Amino acid sequence: MRQIRLLSAAGFLTIATFAAILFAACAKNKCAGVTCNNGGTCVSGSCSCATGFSGSRCDLIALYYQNNTYTNVSITFNGTTLNVPPGATEALYGTPGTTATGSASTHGLYGNVYSWALSDIFPANGTPFTHQLNVGADYFFLQVSNIDVYPVNYLTVNYGTPEQTVEQVSLQADRQAYGVGYYKWVFNSVIIAKFSDGHSITTDSLSIPGTLNSNILLSLP
Fold it and tell me: How many independent structural domains does the chain possess?
C-alpha cells in the first residue's frame, strides 16, 4: 500500500511539473506571431507602442496639435473632437500618408471666434508631425482686470475704426484677469469701458504688437 501511495505521489508530481512547463510555454508564446511596428514591443500578446504611434500593431502615426493661444481650442475631424487647453498638445492618430481634414476654433468670453481650416497629412516617413495652432497677427487677445468698485457692463473695442465692436459684458470688480476675447488688430486701438453706475473710462491709444498670438492686459481704471 505504501508503494502505491509513493507511486501516486510521484505521478501527481510529474503531472504538476508538466502542467507548469506547459503553462510557462503558453505564457511565453503569447507574443509568438505578434509584430509590433515602428519600434513597438509585444507585452503579454499586445503591442506597447512607442511615443507617437498607436493601433493594435503600432501602425498608426500621430499628428500633434499644439495650442499656442490663450484659450481652449476645439478641433473636429469627421465626428472626432479634440479639446486642447492653452499650452497643451493633443494627438490625432491615422494611417501614414492619409489626409486629416477638419476645422478648429477658439474664443474668449466675448469677442470673435477665431478658426482654422485644417488639412494635414499623417507622416509617411515615420516621424510624427506637430501642427502649431497660432492666432494670426491680424488679431489680438484682450484681457481685462477690473480694479474699480463697479462691474463693467459694456466694452467698446477699437473705438472709432471700421473694426469697432460694442458688447454687453459682465466683468466684476474683483481684480481678476478676464480673458475677454479676440479682436481685429488695429494700430493704436482705443477701448471704452462703461461701468454699472453709468460712468465710463476711455483708454489712451494702446500699442498692441502686430505679431502672432499678440495680447494685452488692460487694468481698469
Answer: 3
Tell me which residue range forms the domain holding 111: 41-133
Tell me the C-alpha distance between 144 and 169, whole Å.
11
Residue 221: asked if its preceding bond is cis (omega within 30°), the reply is yes
| Spatial CB neighbours of 203, under 8 Å, sequence gap ≥ 6 | 190, 191, 192, 193, 218
Q: How far apart are CA 211 and CA 137, in angstroms?
A: 4
Taking the C-alpha atoms of residue 167 and residue 177, their distance in angstroms, rounded to an integer, is 18
How far apart, in Å, are the Cα atoms of 110 and each of 92, 170, 196? 29, 10, 18
- 195 grid coordinates: 461701468
| 108 and 168 belong to one structural domain | no
Which helix (H) or strand (E) segment holds residue 18: the answer is helix 2-28
Q: CA–CA separation, 163 vs 211, rounded Å?
A: 18
What is the chain's pLDDT, residue by residue, as a tens digit (221 residues)?
444 454 454 454 455 555 545 455 555 678 988 999 999 999 999 999 999 999 999 999 999 999 999 999 999 998 889 999 999 999 999 999 999 999 999 999 999 999 999 999 999 998 999 999 999 999 999 999 999 999 999 999 999 999 999 999 999 999 999 999 999 999 999 999 999 999 999 999 999 999 999 999 999 98
